[in-house]
Specification:
By secondary structure, the chain is mainly β. It has strands spanning 11-13, 16-20, 30-36, 41-47, 51-58, 60-65, 68-73, 77-80, 86-90, 96-103, 111-113. It has a 6-stranded antiparallel sheet, with no helix packed on it.
Length: 115
Amino acid sequence: MIIKHEAVDPLAFDELKIVDYTAGQHNSSSFAEITVPAGVSHRLSWSNRSDKYYYVVQGSVSFTVNKESGNLAAGDVCLVPQGERFSYTNTGSGDAVLILVHTPSFRLECEGFED
């Protein structure tokens, strides 16, 4: 299966721009690109279904998984196991771009978010 970037409609989640290449498909994993503007954070969240793999393509982000925190730059990965709480913030001056893989695939109804 080939999926062209221009064939996927981006969606907004808070201030993030997400291009979910596998939305609506029944795959064993899902694949998305996330653009995080400078200073923007992903609120504290968790998945009741999936492990999440975040790969930093561009920029820098500070991740917190449970109580562990670290700064990631291009080429770094953060693994968020199912059920563990996480958040991240773009700590750079420009956009950060992340690749996100969910295994098993993403389902919104299985995600938890704190306000």
